Structures are given as structure tokens and as C-alpha cells.
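Input C-alpha cells:
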């Protein structure tokens, strides 16, 4: 199969980047260095792969479409490209982590972009940065500030683990086939914690509960996991709506709950202390 004969598959959410000017702009933004450990998710037909290989000593790529895997292996035969035929949502990125942090890039399918980002956050201590092309609406939610309409659970969780920067817009005409929405480039940089949550799973549960119904107050939303007596001991104005609280306050609330009652004190008691697969669908809503 050649690049010209491959048809984009809707089930994989395939929209192939074809604007060379935007490709060059993205490569300039990423600024790859020869010895960087770079992982490309969903390389597609290799539009971004090709310029990356002009600089990198080696490149790993994760691709689920077996036809594209065959196309890429033929196209880049003899090049330092290692293709891992796998679903990135299920892939264990520990296999690619060696003596240096990895840099992750990709033009992500809209239908899996949020759960995939949260899957990667499980490896955030071993990731240097991530550059993704996403639906503009998702990027705006990732980067949203407290008090705005777009600010939600995705904003809180992603901004706790990473610095989030919206870089530039990408029009539908940059792809084939053309999507019906605008896209944007976002950079996620895992950051050191000024205040660390003591229980990551508790943090996820708390944020999920607070944003369960955006138009209700924190007090009404927290009834699902805390008793009235427990809520009275929280140093927070629970008459506020969830979008009013900055990320730091969610961290403090998590640690207060963990110190006073621990996980067993919640009405919906979490057991794990990682983001965990069972929360991947929750945090994207």
C-alpha cells in the first residue's frame, strides 16, 4: 500500500497533516536535538516523522493501524525509526524510558485525545515535554483559567501535573480529509510540585465530585463523597461554584481530607494512589 492509496479510517479518527508550512513550524517549536528520546504517537503517513528523522539519531513511533505500519516501514526503510504496532491508550511507555526523559509528540485523534493525555500522565515523572495537535476546544479546556467557562476537571488535573501552553492554531485545510473543527498545538511540560497531593487517586475523585454538576455549589457536589460534618471542617467557602477554585485549592482540599479522614473517610472510598485506568473516562468529561 502506498501513501496515495491509503484511505483515512474513521474508526481511528485519522486526519493526516499535509500543510508543509505548519509542519515546519511545529518542528521548529519542538526544536528536536539529535540525542533526544522522542516518541511520536500516531505518525500516520509520516508527515512529521520525515523532518524529525532529519535531525534525530533515533525515533520511536506508536501506531495502531497495521496498514500504516507497513507503509511507514517501507517509506523509512533504513532510517533509525522503530515502530511499535499498538494502541497508544494501552501501550506501556515504560518500555521506551531509559536513561533520559522522553519527549512525546503527535497529531492525536479527537476521539481519544483526552484519555490518552491522562494515560501519559501516569508516566509524567519520566516525560520531558509533550507537544500535541488537538481539537481547539480541548486545548482551550486544558489551558483554561479559574473563573472561565472552559475551566473544569480537565483543566485542574492537567495543570496540576503540567504547565500548559496553547501555541498556535491549525485550520481544517491543513489536513486530509479536512475535519469540521479548528485544531491547535498545545505544549504540556511536567513540572515540579509546589504543593504535592498525598493521594493522587483521592485528588482525582475530589475534582470529579466537585465538577459533577457545574452550576451547583461545591457543598452540593461534595455531598456525594463527604458528610455534612466532614464538610464543616474544610477551610474553604463551599458556597462557591467549582470553577471559582484555583488548582492549588483543590490540592489543599485533597490533603486536608487525606489528613483528617483518609480514603476510608469518603463515602465513595478510593483504594489506589495513581491516576489509574478506571478514572480515564471520568476526567475527560
Amino acid at each position: 500500500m502506498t501513501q496515495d492509496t491509503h484511505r483515512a479510517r474513521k474508526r481511528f479518527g485519522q486526519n493526516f497533516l499535509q500543510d508543509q508550512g505548519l509542519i515546519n513550524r511545529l518542528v521548529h517549536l519542538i526544536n528536536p536535538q539529535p540525542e533526544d528520546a522522542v516518541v511520536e504517537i500516531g505518525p500516520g503517513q509520516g508527515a512529521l516523522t520525515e523532518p524529525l528523522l532529519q535531525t534525530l539519531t533515533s525515533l520511536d513511533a506508536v501506531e495502531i493501524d497495521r496498514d500504516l505500519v507497513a507503509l511507514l516501514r517501507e517509506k523509512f526503510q533504513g532510517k533509525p525509526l522503530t515502530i511499535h504496532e499498538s494502541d497508544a491508550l494501552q501501550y506501556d511507555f515504560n518500555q521506551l524510558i531509559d536513561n533520559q526523559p522522553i519527549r512525546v509528540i503527535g497529531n492525536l485523534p479527537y476521539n481519544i485525545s483526552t484519555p490518552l493525555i491522562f494515560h501519559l500522565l501516569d508516566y509524567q515523572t519520566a516525560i520531558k515535554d509533550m507537544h500535541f495537535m488537538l481539537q481547539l476546544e480541548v486545548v482551550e479546556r486544558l489551558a483554561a483559567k479559574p473563573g472561565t467557562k472552559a475551566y473544569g476537571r480537565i483543566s485542574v488535573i492537567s495543570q496540576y501535573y503540567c504547565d500548559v501552553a496553547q501555541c498556535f492554531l491549525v485550520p481544517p485545510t491543513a489536513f486530509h480529509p479536512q475535519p469540521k473543527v479548528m485544531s491547535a498545538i498545545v505544549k504540556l511540560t511536567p513540572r515540579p510540585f509546589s504543593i504535592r497531593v498525598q493521594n493522587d487517586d483521592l485528588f482525582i475523585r475530589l475534582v470529579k465530585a466537585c465538577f459533577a454538576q457545574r452550576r451547583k455549589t461545591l457543598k452540593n457536589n461534595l455531598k456525594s463523597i463527604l458528610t455534612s460534618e466532614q464538610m464543616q471542617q474544610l477551610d474553604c467557602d463551599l458556597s462557591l461554584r467549582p470553577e471559582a477554585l484555583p488548582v492549588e485549592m483543590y490540592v489543599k482540599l485533597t490533603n486536608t481530607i487525606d489528613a483528617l479522614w483518609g480514603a476510608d473517610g469518603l463515602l465513595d472510598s478510593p483504594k489506589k494512589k495513581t491516576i489509574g485506568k478506571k478514572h480515564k473516562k471520568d476526567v475527560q468529561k
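The chain has a mean pLDDT of 88. Residues 247-260 form the longest helix (14 residues).
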